[in-house]
Design brief:
Layout lengths: L1 H31 L16 H13 L8 H37 L6 H10 L8 H11 L19 E3 L9 E4 L3 E7 L2 E7 L3 E6 L10 E4 L2
Antiparallel strand pairs: 1-6, 2-3, 2-6, 3-4, 4-5
Helix pairs in contact: 4-5
């Protein structure tokens, strides 16, 4: 009678071991399953189980985003500061130059008539300016309210008389219409603006601009 009981016991042990093995294989299969293959809401899985696995993988795969370093920012700020300082220095230099020119022109000798005009012109030798600026400054020095002038004859006859007898006297305004104006200094010379890189010079009065001037205006 003992033999049947022993067989039943052995049979139960085999069944238990088979069940345990099946359970172990099933758990291994669940945990070995990739996160992306585990659908949400699978019966028997805790809520959010698959979502947590997928989120973890995405976070691990995310690449870091590198922003500008503090050194780059500091270098850019320094570059901008240097550019602003250079611009401010250039503006100061221009302002000082304008003030110096204004002060120098204010020191032109005041006079009257042709001699005063010539004295003012001679005082501008070496100035960087064009020919019309030279005559404008000279006319202002002898008391005329002068605006911007050109090289037409009619612009100058309002300040004096047109000379038609072919004579020249110191202080006469020499005009080459559409080209040039100068102030006669005597002895065949004249004060010209705009020569040698823009400078005001004393040079020949005739032959410089295609021969003799076309018009001469003499102030009183």
């Amino acid at each position: 009678m003992a033999a049947p009981s022993s067989r039943k016991t052995s049979t139960r042990r085999v069944v238990r071991m088979a069940a345990a093995g099946a359970l172990s294989l099933g758990m291994v299969g669940v945990f070995a399953l990739p996160a992306y293959a585990t659908p949400e809401g699978v019966e028997g899985q805790p809520d959010g189980f698959a979502q947590r696995l997928v989120t973890a993988e995405v976070q691990e795969a995310a690449l870091p985003i590198e922003g500008p370093t503090a050194e780059i920012d500091a270098a850019e700020i320094e570059r901008q500061q240097l550019a602003e300082e250079a611009a401010a220095a250039a503006e100061r230099q221009q302002s000082e130059t304008r003030e110096q020119v204004s002060t120098t022109r204010a020191e032109l000798p005041a006079g009257a008539g042709a001699q005063g005009l010539l004295d003012a012109a001679m005082a501008q030798l070496g100035w960087a300016q064009d020919c019309t600026a030279l005559v404008e400054n000279s006319l202002r020095a002898v008391g005329f309210g002068v605006g911007d002038l050109g090289t037409s004859v009619g612009e100058y006859t309002r300040y004096g008389t047109l000379v038609t007898d072919g004579s020249y006297a110191p202080g006469d305004i020499l005009i080459w219409p559409g080209s040039h104006v100068a102030i006669y200094a005597g002895n065949g010379l004249a004060v010209h603006g705009g020569f040698n890189g823009g400078s005001t010079v004393l040079a020949t009065a005739f032959g410089t601009f295609s021969g003799m001037p076309s018009a001469v205006v003499r102030i009183g």
